[in-house]
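To the structural biology subgroup,

Please find below the input and predicted structure for Maltose epimerase, which we are adding to the shared reference set this quarter. The sequence is reproduced verbatim from the submission form. If anyone notices a discrepancy with their own records, reply to this email rather than editing the shared folder directly, so we keep one authoritative version.
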Amino acid sequence: MDILQKTFGRYENEKVTEIKLINDNNVAISCLTMGAIWHQFLVPTADGGQKNLLLSFDGIDGYYSNSQNICKSVGRVAGRIKNASYDLDGKHYSLPANDHGNTLHGGPHGFSTWNWNYSTSSNKNSVSVIFQKKIDESMDGFPGNILATIIYTLNNNNKVTIAYSAMDGKTETLFNPTCHVYFNLSDRRDLTTHELQINSSNILDTDNELIPTGKLIPVKDTPYDFRNFSNVALTVGKVHGLDTAYVVNEPGQGVKPIAILRDIESKRQITINSDRNGLVVYTPEHIEGENLSFSRDKGKPANKNEGIALEAQMLPDAIHQDNFGDIVLPRYSKRTYRMSFTFKQLPNDEF
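Predicted structure (tokenized):
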């Protein structure tokens, strides 16, 4: 196990540090202090090199000239909050709006906009980077002051666990963060050889602003059915891109995966676990920016649908829906959520 640290650049006159965690199998992840970004997920290749399974930018400016939250930590609340407001215990709270009058991914000054303090830790079988930030309501516009902690841990089972914690003070607030991680497991610049399985029988019905209506739509007999492995690119073509919230059948960290993404050509696979009840799947037609280091050939135009975002979280706009889950962080309390991503190189005869 090893931990490496180096300067990644500067953003808005602040130094950005890259922290690389390496396990005993030559699998590594790297994270950036700015935005608590998950920058790389490196796995061994047959030629002795390493393959990055994430969409990544060469420099920090690439992440912030892009509006698609590439691999950033988003919070306090992932997804949209309708009308940038909510009522709780007889009080009305207004939030900063940044998406058609709604609050999206923590608003304009959410987790992804801050340069986080960090420390590291290690033991025989795992290595971690711990990001921490005191965030008060004057910084992001959410009520209450919190101490937020994001811990990335890589172990010798090639499992990456991300733990999000918040401790609150005198005012109750909302807490439902995620990592807006984008995957491409293949050696191609598209998703044509990717298959996805999701432990979900329903998706959320949404309005034209992608705000949930409260209704569930069964996936059976629709293109959105990933209960068994289905080709991602074929589905994307049928529905003109995914931006879809799946209702997890049996949430619970380690009990049953909420999703499995695999590439049938390279035989690489990622298994996703989460303790929350939602998985938002997003496939933008194009990734913004010109310095994407993933697999884009320099000087050539980008392909369509280069990556797929898999965002484990409590269902979007839960504060307005009684059956979507509890995202309230009570006064003087702490809440922790976990998600994990486990890499496996499948045998050649797997399919």
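Summary notes: The mean pLDDT is 94. The chain is about 5% helix and 45% strand.

Regards,
Lab coordination
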